[in-house]
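Re: [ENG-882] Designed sequences occasionally contain unexpected residues at chain ends

Forwarding the minimal case from QA. Structure tokens:
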């Protein structure tokens, strides 16, 4: 079977690696064009491109997926199957090229959390379970017929970064199983129930500001759902503070404190009042500094009881 693999970030790596370990024929890898990154604006390769080059796989980096020259090039490879993991939305003229179709790995239990940020939103919304889904592509994004799914538990303090890594490994196994089923002609798909669908739109910096009026569980889920990136943030005297790890506390100390006020700032411990309950801050970052645990942070940053976050 001739396979074209499409992917860009770290999430896609385990899937490409497992296909090579099982000696599947990858006739090309399609990934995002090289972009300048960082303060130096140096050109960097995507994780998938770096890996593909080390394995001497042909790499294609189209700027536009509808470009006729790219479509012609892809067709000339005569792929039997296109496997998509964390890539762009494919136009119909691309995903209809392979004789056996094109399928995508999505990091949720579709139809829940259709969209660009399913891992983040599952945690932000306090889900205790999520998973991965493979499905055949169709024109409406994330709506194709489901091939396989695998469920994964979300821990009460698990971050989006930790869940990302777990799902990428589970997803790789599901990708391999999906290819084997297609190869053997044993695929049994099922339609998605649109009435059960929920969205997981892309998250921007302005969406990551903490609302201290929410209760401590909601703020805790918000922080871990955005950790390590794009990262939940708040302000203190106009300075940006980013939070990476917290612990939810259901009780209050000072009932007269406003949401966002510091309830305790002893060395080694920082408690913030929320709309209901306290949030214990475990790891954070002052703008222009490296992330650090709360004890180290408090040794160099002055906060007192009653100081308010958010402004």
């Amino acid at each position: 079977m001739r396979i074209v693999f499409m992917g860009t970030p770290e999430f896609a790596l385990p899937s490409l690696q497992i296909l090579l370990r099982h000696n599947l024929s990858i006739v090309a890898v399609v990934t995002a064009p090289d972009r300048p990154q960082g303060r130096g604006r140096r050109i960097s390769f995507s994780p998938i491109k770096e890996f593909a080059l080390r394995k001497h796989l042909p790499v294609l980096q189209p700027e536009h997926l509808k470009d006729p020259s790219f479509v012609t090039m892809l067709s000339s490879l005569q792929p039997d199957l296109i496997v998509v993991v964390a890539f762009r939305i494919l136009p119909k003229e691309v995903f209809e090229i392979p004789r056996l179709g094109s399928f995508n790995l999505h990091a949720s239990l579709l139809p829940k959390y259709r969209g660009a940020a399913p891992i983040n939103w599952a945690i932000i919304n306090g889900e205790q379970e999520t998973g991965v889904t493979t499905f055949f592509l169709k024109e409406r994004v994330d709506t194709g017929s489901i091939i396989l799914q695998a469920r994964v538990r979300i821990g009460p303090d698990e971050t989006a970064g930790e869940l990302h890594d777990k799902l990428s490994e589970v997803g790789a196994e599901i990708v391999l199983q999906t290819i084997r089923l297609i190869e053997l002609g044993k695929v049994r798909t099922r339609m998605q129930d649109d009435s059960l669908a929920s969205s997981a739109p892309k998250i921007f910096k302005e969406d990551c500001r903490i609302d201290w009026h929410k209760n401590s569980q909601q703020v805790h889920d918000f922080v871990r759902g955005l950790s390590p990136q794009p990262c939940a943030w708040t302000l203190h005297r106009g300075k940006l503070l980013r939070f990476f790890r917290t612990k939810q506390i259901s009780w209050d100390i000072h009932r007269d404190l406003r949401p966002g006020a510091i309830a305790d700032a002893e060395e080694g411990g920082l408690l913030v009042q929320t709309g209901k309950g306290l949030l214990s801050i475990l790891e954070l970052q002052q703008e222009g500094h490296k992330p650090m645990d709360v004890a180290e942070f408090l040794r160099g940053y002055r906060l007192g009881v009653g100081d308010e976050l958010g402004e």
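QA comment: On inspection the terminal residues look reasonable. The two ends are 58 Å apart (CA to CA). Proposing we downgrade this to a documentation issue.
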